[in-house]
């Protein structure tokens, strides 16, 4: 039963719904907010720093663990707040070691995160929205309506759950970390939820927080041009652009956002991205779609398009999903495409798909799984695309 005598501290809590017992979320608050909360509860501001470190550096799951904080304050905190992370609704392990978690948030909404272990690093791919407003034709998430933005706490919560699962608390300061890199490449368009993403990433970058440097964080966008400079100015993380075509004609067909922000504007935003240099290049992601964007002429158009940008490419073999209208280009075609770019001096590895068997690879994430035939799925996707595009105008 909710305790109606509890003082109202709602305005001090993190964004997001209360737990079933009425307690409020704390994960998602930054250091200044935790200090303000401590002061409001009659404590010294430095208690905020202690809380911050217990939560984000040591991964405390209970206020009782916070042994350098007085018992009385801990009890008051536990009466009002929770340190709850998203609940793992499903966990899948790919034959290649990739792990996918389906996270359920307090209101029951769900989003996916994927951990891709490699020899020298571990990359955690996290979501920024439940669903997506955009309708990129090759992307499974694009067939799902936008349900809502994730809060900063829900974005960080995905990282904390992964650290819980790997038993990686307190945050190791040496090379033994298994989660070394974060990519905002899961569900959703991070630049349409930039404020929450920014707050979450600032906590991630804090040395006494999650402690992952901005050089190891990559934000991927479909090309929301007006927000790109902000991302560079305010976060200075690595930028990846879902490019996928070298001409407006092809790009608008597969990524309707291109009608709003065409390639000329996108390239200008990339050429002037704060912090981009030869040492810190922008990554262009390019999904290889059979007979759509994979000809040598497409590759040549691309070379010309990116000539003013410090960039590298990632060629991504298309990952199929149920009901998709596309197929992956064949190996020879991808290699031919690659050699046009390489001959022009561009770096362009072909990415090995990871986690395809559990639908954890790029563009395969989607959380409302109904049992439908491929034909029904396609029809449903067309309906959702039309609806979303009408809303976007
Ligand atoms: N909304 C952001 C973040 C999602 S990132 C963005 O679009 O950039 C997901 C990445 O996977 C993007 O580069 C996207 O274009 C790519 N992708 C989407 N569907 C894919 C598919 N079916 N196969 C391979 N890559 C895909
Ligand atoms: Fe949304 Fe990115 Fe998928 Fe496009 S590729 S539909 S922007 S998640």
Keywords:
alpha/beta, TIM Barrel, 9-stranded mixed sheet, 13 strands, binds S-adenosyl-L-homocysteine, binds iron/sulfur cluster
What does the model show?
With 393 residues, the protein is of the alpha/beta class. The protein folds into two domains: 10-84, DNA polymerase, domain 1 (Orthogonal Bundle), CATH 1.10.150; 87-358, TIM Barrel (Alpha-Beta Barrel), CATH 3.20.20.70. The protein is built from twelve helices and 13 strands. The protein has helices at 31-40, 46-57, 71-80, 152-166, 194-205, 225-235, 248-254, 257-260, 263-271, 296-305, 331-343, 374-392, and strands at 24-25, 81-82, 87-93, 99-104, 110-117, 122-125, 129-130, 148-149, 181-184, 217-221, 238-242, 282-288, 311-317. The strands form three sheets. The protein has a nine-stranded mixed beta sheet with strand order 3-4-5-6-9-10-11-12-13, with helices on one face. A two-stranded parallel ribbon has the order 1-2. The radius of gyration is 22 Å and the shape is globular. The structure holds S-adenosyl-L-homocysteine and iron/sulfur cluster (SF4). Residues 132, 134, 136, 139, 141-142, 188-189, 222, 242 line the site of iron/sulfur cluster.
Helix/strand layout:
Blueprint: E1 24-25, H1 31-40, H2 46-57, H3 71-80, E2 81-82, E3 87-93, E4 99-104, E5 110-117, E6 122-125, E7 129-130, E8 148-149, H4 152-166, E9 181-184, H5 194-205, E10 217-221, H6 225-235, E11 238-242, H7 248-254, H8 257-260, H9 263-271, E12 282-288, H10 296-305, E13 311-317, H11 331-343, H12 374-392
Parallel strand pairs: 1-2, 6-9, 9-10, 10-11, 11-12, 12-13
Antiparallel strand pairs: 3-4, 4-5, 5-6, 7-8
The structure holds S-adenosyl-L-homocysteine (SAH) and iron/sulfur cluster.
């Amino acid at each position: 039963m909710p305790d109606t005598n509890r003082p109202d501290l709602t305005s001090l809590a993190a964004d997001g719904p209360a737990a079933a017992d009425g307690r409020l979320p704390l994960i998602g608050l930054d250091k200044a907010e935790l200090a303000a909360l401590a002061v409001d509860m009659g404590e010294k501001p430095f208690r905020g720093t202690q809380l911050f470190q217990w939560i984000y550096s040591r991964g405390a799951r209970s206020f009782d663990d916070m042994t350098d904080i007085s018992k009385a304050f801990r009890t008051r905190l536990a009466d009002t707040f929770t340190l709850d992370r998203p609940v793992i609704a499903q966990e899948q392990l790919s034959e290649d070691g990739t792990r996918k978690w389906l996270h359920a948030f307090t209101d029951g909404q769900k989003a996916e995160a994927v951990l891709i272990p490699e020899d020298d690093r571990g990359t955690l791919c996290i979501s920024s929205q439940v669903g997506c407003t955009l309708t990129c034709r090759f992307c499974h998430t694009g067939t799902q309506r936008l349900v809502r933005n994730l809060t900063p706490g829900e974005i960080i919560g995905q990282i904390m759950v992964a650290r819980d699962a790997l038993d990686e608390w307190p945050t190791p300061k040496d090379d033994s970390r298994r989660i070394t890199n974060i990519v905002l490449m899961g569900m959703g368009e991070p630049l349409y939820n930039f404020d929450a993403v920014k707050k979450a990433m600032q906590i991630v970058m804090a040395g006494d927080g999650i402690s992952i440097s901005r050089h190891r964080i990559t934000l991927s966008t479909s090309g929301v041009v007006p927000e790109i400079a902000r991302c560079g100015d305010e976060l200075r993380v690595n930028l990846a652009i879902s490019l996928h075509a070298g001409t407006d004609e092809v790009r608008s067909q597969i990524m309707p956002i291109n009608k709003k922000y065409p390639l000329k504007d996108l390239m200008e935003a990339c050429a002037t991205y704060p912090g981009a240099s030869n040492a810190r290049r922008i990554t262009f992601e390019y999904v290889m779609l059979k007979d759509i964007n994979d000809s040598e002429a497409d590759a040549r158009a691309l070379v010309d398009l990116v000539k003013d940008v410090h960039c590298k490419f990632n060629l991504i073999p298309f990952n199929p999903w149920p009901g998709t209208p596309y197929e992956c280009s064949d190996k020879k075609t991808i290699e031919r495409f690659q050699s046009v770019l390489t001959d022009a001096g561009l770096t362009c590895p072909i990415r090995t798909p990871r986690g395809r068997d559990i639908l954890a690879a790029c563009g395969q994430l989607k959380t409302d799984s109904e049992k439908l035939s491929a034909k029904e799925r396609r029809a449903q996707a067309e309906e959702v695309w039309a609806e979303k595009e009408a809303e976007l105008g």
